[in-house]
Write a structure and sequence with these properties.
The chain has 250 residues and is α/β, with parallel strands linked by helices. It has 2 domains: 3-87, NAD(P)-binding Rossmann-like Domain (Rossmann fold, 3-Layer(aba) Sandwich); 93-249, N-(1-d-carboxylethyl)-l-norvaline Dehydrogenase, domain 2, CATH 1.10.1040. The protein contains 11 helices and 6 strands. The chain has a 4-stranded mixed beta sheet with strand order 1-2-5-6, with helices on both faces. Helix 3 runs antiparallel to helix 5 and helix 10 (218-231) runs antiparallel to helix 11 (239-249). The radius of gyration is 18 Å and the shape is globular. It starts with 11 loop residues before the first strand and ends with a helix.
Length: 250
């Protein structure tokens, strides 16, 4: 729908979660695609009414890492919303960092709990650690150096360092306790809008990618299965679902 309106020299900035820059670049060309990462919390409530939940990391960059005039222009515009937004030569690092962070948020949506309360459960900590580890191992296989933000520590999850992951989760819990957006957008899709989530477009894309590298991602695959169960009405949001993942990760 957008492509016919793209003028010569025009470009698309992907400010969505996921690795959508890959898909957009395939459709309109990498030269017409700019990468963007956002982590501030927001919810569309109704037409003309959006909840802006909290300030958080924002970054923009070219897919090939060049620092160009258009990146500087977009950065200036984004700085009106988030004064600490950054122009980066490693946008893939931010995007893969968000893939790791996002996998944890999808897991919180398996339950009725807020993001912070869900991640703070000590009995479920190993699940969040395993999810982060699987995503960071996949980023490593892709040749990407993920970047941390708002508590998420890629190096700790990549190395499966117990103390590092514990500290990261505590920082993420603290960050999300200060937001007016207490639950993830995934939770809202399941609990409020009663519609399908973006799990296939975000988490689901990593499963065949992992297989292409010969990597096993059982925690990610199980989480996709459980979210589908909720979407299709076979299961209800409950901490019991994360208990099932604990048994898988034990």
């Amino acid at each position: 729908m957008l492509a016919p309106h793209l003028s010569a020299g025009g470009y698309v900035v992907s400010a969505q979660n996921g690795l959508n820059e890959k898909v957009i670049a395939e459709r309109i060309g990498a030269e017409n695609t700019v990468g963007c990462f956002v982590n501030f919390g927001a919810d569309w409530l109704e037409p003309g009414r959006i909840l802006y939940g909290n300030r958080a990391a924002v970054a923009v960059g070219e897919l090939d890492g060049r620092m160009t005039p258009r990146v500087a222009e977009i950065h200036q515009l984004l700085s009106l919303v988030e004064p600490e937004a950054v122009a980066t030569d490693n946008i893939w690092g931010y995007l893969w960092g968000k893939m790791g962070y996002g996998s944890l948020l999808f897991c919180t949506a398996l339950t009725p709990d807020s993001m912070s309360d869900a991640m703070a459960r000590p009995e479920h900590r190993m699940v969040y650690e395993r999810l982060g580890h699987e995503v960071m191992k996949l980023a490593e296989a892709e040749g990407v150096s993920p970047l941390g933000f708002n508590g998420f520590d890629p190096k700790a999850f990549l190395s499966a360092d117990p103390e590092g992951m514990r500290a990261a989760l505590e920082k993420m819990v603290a960050h999300n306790r200060k937001t007016a957006k207490t639950h993830s957008g995934i939770w809202r899709d399941l609990a409020v809008r009663k519609r399908k989530t973006e799990i296939d477009a975000q988490i689901g894309t990593m499963i065949p990618l992992a297989a292409s590298h010969g990597l096993a991602v059982p925690a990610l695959a199980k989480m996709v299965e459980l979210v589908h169960d909720i979407e299709d009405g076979r299961r209800q949001q409950s901490s019991v679902l994360v208990d099932e993942m604990v048994r898988l990760c034990s």
